[in-house]
Amino acid sequence: MILRLLQAEAAYDGLLWPYRVRADRIMVWMNLFLLLVCTALAPWRATYAVVGLVGLPTMLLAYALAQAWPGQLVTRLFMGCAFMAYTGLIIHQSGGDIEAHFAAFGLIGVLLYYRDWRSIVAATVFIYLHHLVLGYAQTLGVPVYVFDQNNFWVLFGVHVAYFLPFIAMMVYLSVWLRREGYEAQHVIVLAQQVVQGNLMDDGTPSAVLAHGNMPLVAAVQQMKRRLLDLLKVLPVAAAVVRIDTGTIVSINEAWERRIGPLGGKDDRIGESPIWADPATWSDLIARMHSAAEKLINKTEVVLRKNDGTPMICELSIVLHEGVTPVMAILTVEDITLRRRAEETMKRLAFRDALTDLPNRASLQVALELAINARDQGGQSGVLVMLDLDGFKPVNDHYGHDAGDEVLRTIGTRLQWLNQRADVAARLGGDEFCLVLGHGITAPEAVATAEQVIAAVSQPIRLGDGGPSVCVGASAGVACLTPEVHNIEDWLKRADEALYRAKRSGKNRVCTAPECQMG
């Protein structure tokens, strides 16, 4: 039972440590004061030797303990006993005229300074033993002067009897003062945690809470829990970062679920493996400090989860400079799926699903850019329109799957052959287009079209070990001359040249009249 009582009492020592460190310093000065009192009384009965043997070592040991173990239990116990040692020394120096009543003032000092009943009990046991041992020695003729009368056992019993209620009251008061001091210190610590954004650590020992209600502590803890609940319900991952140390002090459940838990209490955001680029955090902090509103709103960065998986995120940071230390709230929204969906939609909108070539919409953009460049004095371009020859028999004989395979192969050959082409696109069906720029001449465009026809005419094997088929191509070339007014006009001229190539026997190239050969 006594062991459990002492263990429960020890639970308070951590937060009361600041009180007790200050009390140690006060008690050292009190020891010095009492040593000076004893030195001043020494001439009365020539007690210089006992002051040197008892008072001076007590003072030096008090100072040493306060330096070596400030606020610790061993120091508090010694300080209580030291006060009683000086009490006994003064009684001896007065020849017993000043009795043990003086010890009550020492206990009050210990009570107010330390708020620890263990120190009071130690001081009480010390003074009782002093009276018992040295008082009995006085009755045997030893000149120690504890009592001013010789009826020792009666005097000792009277001192014990009237002193015990006072001791009990001191112990009771020390318990309440200790609890109040603990509660006040704990409220300060909890408030500092809230200000610093640390909502995750509680730090209240269960043994302490079991001693009784602490309404102030409970109120601050409830405030912390409500703030933590608000942080938890945020749909995006959130973290509170201490700017001066760069330490993550709190995260919410979304952060743990989507990014991962903290590795320890000293997690530094700048050194975290979440950054795909280690310089990202320092760059963000520099941007935030230079921002007028001290915030970064939804900037796109690439982060990594704890397992190394990359993710595209929208990151926001709000800086709170009104608190010390300065804190920042960091929110991270994973937009990887959104970006993939956007890329897929963009691809579907501007790429041909079968050949993965740019589609008609992409071709429209390329043609418009070429016309704008010409109108602004840039180099003109050339449009080559292609139509496969002999493609329909492949579809009819081998089926549409084989026809799709032929189209995919043709698309791959166009991409490989036309490195200089701005766009190699599929118009639809078995029609393709090349938009050639970079100051290409009509003869060069014709030569390119002939290379494409030769490549298209190469056999295509269907599947693994399947039959080979051959298709040809006809091409129409239209130059972007001043006579071309718009996209539709340009396409029409290329289509007319293609029609002439088809009508002329296929597998050949024809040019629009405005293309000047040579």
Automatic annotation (TrEMBL):
Any Pfam family hit: GGDEF
Catalyses which reaction(s): 2 GTP = 3',3'-c-di-GMP + 2 diphosphate
GO molecular function, one term: diguanylate cyclase activity
CDD domains given in the database record: GGDEF (cd01949)
This protein's UniProt keywords: Membrane, Nucleotidyltransferase, Transferase, Transmembrane, Transmembrane helix
Domain named GGDEF: residues: 379-514
Parts of the chain that traverse the membrane: 73-92, 98-114, 126-146, 152-173
InterPro entries named in the record: Diguanylate_Cyclase, GGDEF_dom, Nucleotide_cyclase, PAS-assoc_C, PAS-like_dom_sf, Rev_trsase/Diguanyl_cyclase
Key word Membrane present: yes
The PAC domain, residue ranges: 297-347
NCBIfam families per the UniProt record, alphabetical: GGDEF
Protein name (database record): diguanylate cyclase
Taxonomy of the source species: Bacteria, Pseudomonadati, Pseudomonadota, Betaproteobacteria, Burkholderiales
